[in-house]
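Sorry to interrupt, but I need a hand with the structure work. Go ahead and set the record down below:
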Amino acid sequence: MTPGDPLTASTSRARRIAFESLDGTPLAGTWYLDASYPLPRAVVVVAPGGGIRAASYRRLAEHLCTAGAAVLCFDYRGIGASRSGRLRGLEANMVTWGRDDLGAALAHAAARFPTASLGVVCHSIGCAMVGMARNAADIRRVVFLAPHTAYFGDYRRLARLPMFFAWHVLMPALTRVAGYFPGRVLRLGEDLPKGFALEWAGRLHRDVGATASDRSRWGPLLDTYGQVRADALAISITDDAFAPPAAARSALDLYPAMQATHTVVAPRDLGLERLGHMAFLRERTGPWFWQQAAAWLLQSEAQVDYASRPITA
């Protein structure tokens, strides 16, 4: 962990680990375990969004942990605690993050708790990458938070033009000069490996196989997406510029065999003026979403009526 990381002062439940990606790349993660549940009903892997550190999901993981799940948060290669040295020259893109890194996290979780139901919480572009994992067919239940595929046409209409400039003009230009995307300097999340940044910037078509380059990269993975038969809960937020409700359809269409329930939440439903793309992670705005995720992943019949549980400052 780096200085200032929220997990530097560990809670009694947090256990840092090191493991390897499927191609041998060292990765870092944290288990959240509660002694009250030595045999958890579910083991859950958290798949972060692009350029978001695993530590940002601490509160979500702790909530799931206290509800009865064993939870593994991890960083993709080049991000957070899995970053080692300079990003220039690091081979990392959506495929290596989804197929190899997330695939290894799923395998590690399933091996540690073989009798527990395997679940995943995905956030943002993580929702599009989980289907790449070689063992994605083993997932029983999944929660998609703000699902999207990075296609610029799915951005919220009022923010589409400035976001197109930031992510599809500025990002590739800076990435080609620097050899990676310097997100930290620009206050746009973590620095991103060149391969991932250019793939995001290149999402100019709704169809992930629209170009010859896309087909060569994504084509072999499409069968894996088709093998995912998990029960899915997708949650979209109306004022999310990255992933408004329409973007969820693009992401869910990647999973033809998946049974999905799509819930759309407006800020007023939670008694707030704004939520946005990171509402799932914040202490003030996150609890309702964490409750929904726990109920879904632990196969509980208890559902929270968000209209009756407004969040107050």
